[in-house]
Amino acid sequence: MRLVVFVFAGLCCWSTLAAAGDSVTTTAAEEGFDWTGPYIGIYGAYGLGQAETAGALDTKPRDPFVGVIGGYATEFEGLILGLEGDVSLSDLDGYGGPGGTAVSDDIDNIAAVRGRIGVPLDRFQLFASAGWSWARAERSVVLGSDRETLSGLMLGVGLQARLGGNLVGRIEYNYHHYGKTVFDLPGSPKVDTNVSAVKAGLDFYF
Q1: Which of 31, 106, 124, 174: CA 20 to 30 A from 53?
Q2: Predicted confidence (pLDDT) per residue in 75-92, tens digit
Q3: pTM more than 0.70
Q4: Sign of the C-alpha dihedral, residues 171, 175, 178, 183?
Q5: What is the secondary structure of 115-184 as a DSSP string?
């Protein structure tokens, strides 16, 4: 249900951005700010995940992490269209079950590739994104552990701001929905995993 709500909100934001882009009469390029070109950057983030099963062995992996990002953007008809990807050193840990120690989940190395659409607002850019995300996950119980690769839909919204020269700051919210993954453990648990991440970073535009 949370995914449905977020998808609906993302689509509404997407349509709002498109409508706003049509109404923009002065583009960033005309104001002296050109968003077109390749860029790379670094970011810090805090991730909060949920790993849910049909039983009571649920966890909420969480932790701060860092990552790198790169992409390319071009301005078209008052909108900024782009493609970007990022990889991280995420290591989200969560514990649950009776006594809080019966099960643990570890979500590592979250990465994503996504398309972007944005609206230039003077030295700012408001954007929405959608794409695909991957991560490595390990679930451990008393009788063993198993690692699996997660993949699923990623959605995001954010704001960028020109800081001077080629430097651009960003704040961003990403939602990664990985769906159900079967782990090779007693009972073959199906774990439904998602991660929310808030990021703040610095990009360099070439």
Answers
A1: 174
A2: 988 899 999 999 999 999
A3: yes
A4: positive
A5: EEEEEEETTEEEEEEEEEEEEEEEEEETTEEEEEEEEEEEEEEEEEEEEETTEEEEEEEEEEEEEEEE-S
